[in-house]
Structure formats: structure tokens, C-alpha cells
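Q: I have four molecules that I believe assemble together. Could you output C-alpha cells for the complex as a whole instead of separate predictions?
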Amino acid sequence: MKIQLIGGDRRQLYLADYIRAHGFQVSTSALGTAAPPDWEADICILPLPATRDGVFLNAPMAAEPVALQSVLDHFKGKLLFGGMLPPAPQASYRVIDYFAAEEVTIGNIVPTVEGALALAIENTPFTLLNHPALVLGAGRIGSLLASRLTALGAAVTVAARREASLAACRALGAKARLYEDLPLQRFRLIFNTVPARVLEEEQLRRLPQDALLIELASRPGGFDPQKAEALGLRVMQAPGLPGKFAPETAAEIIGEYILKEMEHCE
Amino acid sequence: MKIQLIGGDRRQLYLADYIRAHGFQVSTSALGTAAPPDWEADICILPLPATRDGVFLNAPMAAEPVALQSVLDHFKGKLLFGGMLPPAPQASYRVIDYFAAEEVTIGNIVPTVEGALALAIENTPFTLLNHPALVLGAGRIGSLLASRLTALGAAVTVAARREASLAACRALGAKARLYEDLPLQRFRLIFNTVPARVLEEEQLRRLPQDALLIELASRPGGFDPQKAEALGLRVMQAPGLPGKFAPETAAEIIGEYILKEMEHCE
Amino acid sequence: MKIQLIGGDRRQLYLADYIRAHGFQVSTSALGTAAPPDWEADICILPLPATRDGVFLNAPMAAEPVALQSVLDHFKGKLLFGGMLPPAPQASYRVIDYFAAEEVTIGNIVPTVEGALALAIENTPFTLLNHPALVLGAGRIGSLLASRLTALGAAVTVAARREASLAACRALGAKARLYEDLPLQRFRLIFNTVPARVLEEEQLRRLPQDALLIELASRPGGFDPQKAEALGLRVMQAPGLPGKFAPETAAEIIGEYILKEMEHCE
Amino acid sequence: MKIQLIGGDRRQLYLADYIRAHGFQVSTSALGTAAPPDWEADICILPLPATRDGVFLNAPMAAEPVALQSVLDHFKGKLLFGGMLPPAPQASYRVIDYFAAEEVTIGNIVPTVEGALALAIENTPFTLLNHPALVLGAGRIGSLLASRLTALGAAVTVAARREASLAACRALGAKARLYEDLPLQRFRLIFNTVPARVLEEEQLRRLPQDALLIELASRPGGFDPQKAEALGLRVMQAPGLPGKFAPETAAEIIGEYILKEMEHCE
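A: Yes, here they are, computed for all four components at once.
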């Protein structure tokens, strides 16, 4: 079985290693070398996201742009993996979006949370120990982040919409509040994990002048970054932390899923 | 507003204190004194469970048995709270089962988990630090228990039915396995949190001779206690830990819910 | 090499198993069977403490009392281990007090701390999570206890005599105060780890009426238990927790030390 | 009382704020503005380190170099604080090296450890969770680092010279080994906290090719960085982390000490 990776960055190099280590014949293209794709390969793996503009492959380490459609066409009828792939005519293309898999989503929680901790340590002038930190959202990322921050000694408050989510966060040792009931003026460090507005301009105004807002959720995110910056607050957009802070682990998570799916599809 | 508590144990005494501290006129009956119930009270609160046999009130501190039906009848048309109440003709009785409330269920997780830790420390001849422990079930209790055991240095494995639950447990620092894939011979300490058979006799046979099984779930539980004991294993049935290990906290959780519901019902 | 254990309780049975598992020929006496001591054995191991009254061996599982001196005399010139042994004429007796060894002292910290947690969970009506707990002393036991309580979500304050000890405790996420500066009225749960008075009667009076004091240190301890009880406070004397809560682990710690010393002495 | 800060970086600006907030009249010089020093001030505070070359003040935000001796002379007979100050003729100069104070050393442990965590998260391609990490040294920094890494789920091994230090680390949930007994080939992440060679070239050779060595100790450090890099290992020199990752907290620690000393000296 021959497997071809096209495009992507350091994470795809780790992914190639991972799959090779499991006994497959792997080649890479548009990934730091001039090697052309092997269109005869049995399976193709594209990066996460597979494309940023819907037209060209996401291939920052490639010498020249690669059209996504041409890749899709070459692998028509064969198994093709990619992250956040645009919808394809399913009849003729056998496309699997690994970013939609629950195992991958969950696997990415820890690298995301560790990355968020590093960003916070580096970009605040104070220690996490004994300092108030606010986590917006009590989902999987929010609750693990709250738990890790607590383990590092921060005074964590988690905000959520429902009493039941709050009760679960209290069990972790964090304080928990409904969004409408937050003592915002206390927090110089805020993490958002909710992909929907939870802090309006009026709330942003109540934050301390030197607050740092770290946005971990996808668009539209928990607050308007322009408005936050216009108020003098510091904003860090932090998408894709697993690929940045733990590309090897992120590759293993994707690789494990791909190998399992390959077995299923055989 | 007059509130009458009838029956129960130490937890109900704490509950009486809690409600009194919030400004209500509270009396108790069948709870360590000879005082008869005040049938004129506006609201009645029964213990958890309200009854053990369906006939008499659960009232271990009462001098004489109290018939549940007579209490229900006296408070017909008035608000009556109780835990795990048998179904009543809803038209004429205004009965609220506080044990069915999500806040109460979630609030009970921490007292349950702390009680489970104490039982394990006391009933195993080894420290939790560095010893393997198996948690059956990755729900709310299972995952918090896994997290606390990990914090105490145990080598925790969580078992669940679905890969996605496992991935979430791994983020907590525990190992995670599907039920069919457990190295059972390693575990001398097993907690069950699943109210359904997960260990059959064949699996029980694979446990070490001196294993301790702590049953935290309600019936039928994760294993057959008779079969386990017949195999020489030690079994601890551990229902109702919040009332035993943290009656004051358990009372606060119930009290907070009751006060909120009283406001709603007014 | 033949090894004879005489006296002691369950911990000595685990110790016998441990040494046997390391390839030695082990026999026990005054330890639940009627077997007489094998006076021809090469090495003798006595329990911890070896004696409680200075005359008879500490042998609660023996049918009849055993005079310590007769044991000492039989093993004159041979290696004899025991815990908290009274001083012997070193010329003719080769006596080693394993309780004086630093490895054993340090090894006992974890079983002591886990036992203290279990006692606290069982004997307070509230959860550790979110409740204030006071740890007197910032030594090895005090600081590990503070760290474990913090991991379970308690609001821990450590008290010590020196600013430097306090700074180290703060790093663990606990609050830290000098003894003279303690808000005693807040603490319903107090652990003492200091073998010297740190709370005088005047301070005991400032504790809440339902406070629980757990004494983990050896005499004279951090407070006068009679005075505390006369004030209505609850006192738990908790010496020897490793033997009670983790006899197997405690035996391993002693066994490991004894085997190492046996090698040295050969 | 007028206080003059001369030289330093962002930490000294936070220190100026801290002291000002405690009611003193504070001015700064050679710290981002063109203001000359107020030689009439009662007390002078220099940065940490006060000088890097023994001649000029450590003043990266100053427009021009400032001779250390001229500052010393202007404040002769007055109280002068600085970090790692070269020895001065004590008779005429009242110089206090705040970096030598135990409170400051201990206070710096947490910012150092948090900085080390951020460096590790950022500079390894894997998550800390489930990955082996080696901490050289079981002193204050080593043991807190081991504890924090364990809390983040890393599989931590601490190495030390003495069995007693090892036993204390095991209580934290880490593995512990003597230096001569380390499975070095397993560790791709190594932190050194010992200011003396503990890894010789022969040991460095046994590390994996892509290992990262983070040096937290002062010279000469735990290994020879040139030799490590010549072997292809990655080395991060990481001195002064508190000033880099938590200048505000670091300033508070120094400020608290200085204020206390000022009281003493009055």
C-alpha cells in the first residue's frame, strides 16, 4: 500500500513518519522537497486545513502553489484524507475529513490546553499561581483548561450559560458563574473557548486596562477582537495550537485515526 | 412561611439548620425528638430516600414508624419535597423529587468521590500513590474519581464502552481502555460507577485474589456481588456516600435546590 | 540465611511476605500462630514499636507475653532489627533501629498523609473541596499534606514559624501564615504535624465550637488534647497511621531498608 | 522618604510601581526616560543583576552607560539595594544584596518553574501529557518543577545524589533515580536545576538525538552546553526566568523584601 502526503507543514512531516513507522510506504510532496506527487499512490493525505482559500492546497513549504481540484481529480475513486475539506461530490470522490472525527477533536484538547498555558505564562507579567483567570465556556476545552490552571495554582473562574455546567466545574475546584454574573473587573487573564459571542462591548469595558484575552475558539469567537483592541485590551488569536505547540502529538492523533479508517475501508 | 421536616438522619438536621439560616421557620419531627409534625406547616420536606419499603417513612431517628401515606395526605395540595419519592397522583399532590434534579445529582459527585477515596485508603493495605486503580465508567463520577486518584498519585485506568469517552479520560492523565481490553489481573482496587453489568463472572475470575471492589453505582451495579464474594474477592457496597461522608455539604446541595424551587413555585 | 520475625501485627505479616519474596527463609512467632521462635535464626526482626512498656515485646497477636530482654539475649551477637528500640549495650548486641533511618521516615510520609486525608473525609460533615483547612507545620509531612489537600480542592492555610518556610508553602498553592497571625476562627479542620506546642489554650478558644483537631505528631504534640476537649473541640490522636492505613506499603518501606542494611552488614 | 531606582528593565518599572503604591515617593532613571538620577534621594535601588561587567550598571533601557562606582559613591552612607552586587567596602557603603535573601530566592521558584513549563511546551513537538521528562536535581526548584510537570500529566523522573532526596520526590508522584542509574535514552526533555556538572559527555551521548536540554541553574550548570550541541542536542540556556516570564511578580517579591528591610534599618 502506497501513501502520498501532499502539502502542509511540520505536522505533516511527523504524520509521514508516523505512518511509515507503521509499515507503510510513504512519500511526501509540496512539503519541503521538490518531489512531485506520486499519482499512482493508493491513498492521499492532505493537511489540516486542506485549503485556506478553497482553491489552492495549504502548502506553505511548497515551492509552487498546488491546485486542490487537480489533487482531488488525480485521486478520484481512491481514499483521500484531509482536514476541514470543502464538500465534494461524494459519489466519485472517497473523501474523509479527519478533523470532523470525534477522536481527533478530543485528542486535540490537551495540545490546545497546553499551548494556551504557555501563551498565558509568556504573555502576562505575573505568575499563574495565585492570580485570577477567567475561562469562558465549560465544554471540553474549557473544563480541562480550568482543571490545569487550578493545578498550577491559579484562582480560576469558569463562566457558562447553564447551572448544570457550573456545578460540574465547581467539582474541579474552580469557581463558576453565569455570564451575566461575572466580576469582570478582577480578571487580567481571560481565555475564550466558545465559538459564539459571550462578551459584548459593554462587558469588555469592565475588564482591567491591561487584560489579556486569548481566543481559543473558532469564528466568530467569544468577543469582537477589533472592539477589544480599540478599548486598549490585548488580544491573542490562538487558532490551531496543536499544530503549533505539539505537531508530533497532533500528527499521532490524526495518524491513529487515519490508520483505523484505512482498516475499516478495506 | 413554616417548613416541616419529617424523618431522615443527620443530613436532615443539617438541612433544617440550612433552611433556618435562610430565614424560614423550621420544625423537625421523627428526627431525634418526640415532637409531632406540625401539619399546619406550608411546606414539608422528607428525607432521601423518602421511604425504603414504600410504606413507612425512612426515619431511623424516630421513636415509632411513620406511614408515608399519612404524611402525603396531610400535605395534600401543599408543596412536598422528598428524595426518590414513589410516584404520586400528581393532580392533588404537589410532590417534588429533589434527587431527580440535575444540580443535586452533580452536586453529589464530589462528596461521593471523596467518600470513595476514604473507603479506598482505609480498606486497602497499600497507599494509593503508585498503585494501580481501575475505574469502571467514564461518566461524571468516573471521570472526577479518576482525576482525584491521579492527583493522589495512583496509576489510574478508566474503562468505558466508547473510544470517545476514553479519549476524554486520557486528557485527565489516566490510562483508558475498552472493557474488553482490560489487564484485570493487575488491579487490586476497582471502583464501579456504572449501574449496569460491566464485569461478568469470567472477568471477576481474572482479578487478583485480594482485590477490593467498591460499588458506587445503583442497582444492578457493575458486577454481581454474590459471585464476586464467592470467588473470594472483597466487595464494598457504597451507596449514599454523600449522606455518610458529608451530610452537611449534602444538605446544602439539597437545601439550595429546595429554596430555589420554593421561589419558582410561589 | 534464616530470618525470624517475633511479635507485631498485620504489618509484620506483610514484612514476612516481603522478605520471603526476596528469597530468604522466614519464620514468624508471636504473630497469630503458636510457633515458638527459632533461636537459631541468623537475624531477628521485631515490630514498630518493638515494645510499648519497655519490658514486654509489642505482640498483640501473641497468645502470651514475650519478654523483650529474653529475645535480645537469644540474639546476642546477631543482627537484630526493631523500631524505636530502647538503647542496648552496643558492644554485645548488634541492634538496628529501623525507625531512625531517614528512608523509613520519609517513606512513611505518604501513608501518613493518605491516612490523614481519610480521617478528615470521614470525620467532618463537609467535603474537603472548598473548605478551609489548617495545617500546623511546614515540614515534610505538613507540606505534602498541604499539597494533597490543595489537589482535593481544600482552601489550605499552612502555619509555620519562619518566613522562609511560608514562602515554600505558598509555591504549593497554599496560603501561609506565621503562628501568631492565624485567623483561627475560620478553621473547622486542623491538622497538627509539629511535635511541640504551637496552639496554646488561648488559641484553642478561638477555634469554632465544632472544629476537629487531628494530631499527627508525636508527643507532646501541637496542643494539649485535654484542654481542647474540655473546650468542646473534637480531637483525634492519630499516631502510627502507616501501620493502620497502609500496612503493606509500610512493611515494604521497612523491608527495603532491612534488606539493604543486611547487605551492608555482611 | 524619597526612593530612586536606576537602571534595569521592565521588572524595575514594576518595582517602581510597587513601591510607589506603598506610599513612597519614587523616581526612576536610566529606565526608559532621560531623567537624571535624584542624588538627594534617601534610598537607591539597582537592578538584578546590578551590573553584568563589574563596571557599568545593567541598564538596557538607558540612553547612555552609567558607571556603577559613581552611583555607589553618590549613595555612600545611604541605603542601597541591588541584586548580585559586587562586594563593597562595608564600612562606608550600606549595601544590601536582595538576591541573597532567602525570601527572594524562594519567591523566585514559582516564576522560574512556570517559565520552564512554557519553554518546554513551546520547544518540544509533543505534549507534556504522557511524555517522559527528566528533572536533574531534587532541591526546591527541582521538586516543585517535578510536582507541576506531574500535575500536567508528564511521566517525570527526578535524579539526585542521595536516597533521602529521592524518597521525598517519590512522595510527589515522580519516579526518582540516582544519577548513575538513569535510563537516559528515554528522555527527550531534560531540565537541569543543579549548578554543578551532573551529566558528563558520556551521559549526554546516551540521550536521544532530538533531546532538548533546558538549563535552569547558574554556572557551571549541569552539563557542558558546547559538548551537548556538538552532539546535536538542543540546548536552551534559561537564566533569569522570573524577570522574563513574570516581571511583575518578580518585582513584588523584591519589593516586599526591600520594604521590610527598610523598616528594619530605620
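A: One point stands out. Residues 247-265 of chain B form the longest helix (19 residues).
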